[in-house]
Amino acid sequence: MDISSAGLRVLKQIAESGSFTAAAARLGYTQSAVSRQAAALELSAGATLFERRPDGVRLTPSGLILLRHAHAVLASLSAAERELTGTVPRNEPVRLGVVPSAGAVILPAALAHLAAAGPQITVTTREGTTPALIRALRAGSLDLAVLTSRPPHRPFDGESPRLHVETVADTELVVAAPSTGEFAGRTSVHVDELVDAAWIAAPSSSSESLLGVWPGLPGRPRVIHSVRDWLTKLQLVAGGFGVTTVPSGISPVLPPGVSLLRVDGAPSEIRRVLVARLPGHPAPAITTVTRAITSTA
Known about the structure:
There is one protein chain. The chain is α/β, with parallel strands linked by helices. Helices cover about 35% and strands about 25% of the residues. It is built from eight helices and twelve strands. The chain is globular. The N and C termini lie far apart (about 45 Å). The relative contact order is 0.15.
């Protein structure tokens, strides 16, 4: 096969972003250039590498095989470049992805743990949704990712081999409400009382549920503020402008004026926090960072 490093980078970015358009934007290419690189890859490989689907582009089994080898090739090229230019890093890099709800508490604690231990590791972080971080793991753009799942905690994707996953903690979903007003002084609320509540929620999409509204709430929720940022959500709650759902583990970083309420009259909603990586024997730095994350539980 005659495959260029540029072609392998295109393959990796398509796998991560899930579309030719997004891959082109991240690489600074035109969409037609990405399409040409993709076609050239398939021609050279003698196999179909990309599956066009209504929800985007996914790699075929042949594409996943080539992606696995692309990781090694691109890593070797990067190492050669560093050696030739004399820029061998002093510290071992670890690229960590974190979902916003877990990152607010887990990330600072894990980084503080690493700083106290003093290992020669440089952690770079990136925030994203669980589906986006899984794609980045599969594409080799991340070494580790802190993800969340809900029962029955099925595998994150159908690709093989499965990701190596460790549980960090199980946390209960609760409602964040203003400390004054209708729910003042309370520690719980019945689900029926939430039907007409003003909700502060993240926008939904075809791949994500509406984040911030109690799951299974009877009727259609009344979303007053559509917000992705957790700090903005909680400040709106503190100001008395609505309620939102949060994992109970976020309590250490709540702003003044916010109370957490358990929900009665409905099944409890448990969210599991996990740290995931590609299967295989991890580098020592990845193991060290994983231990720092799991020690926060």
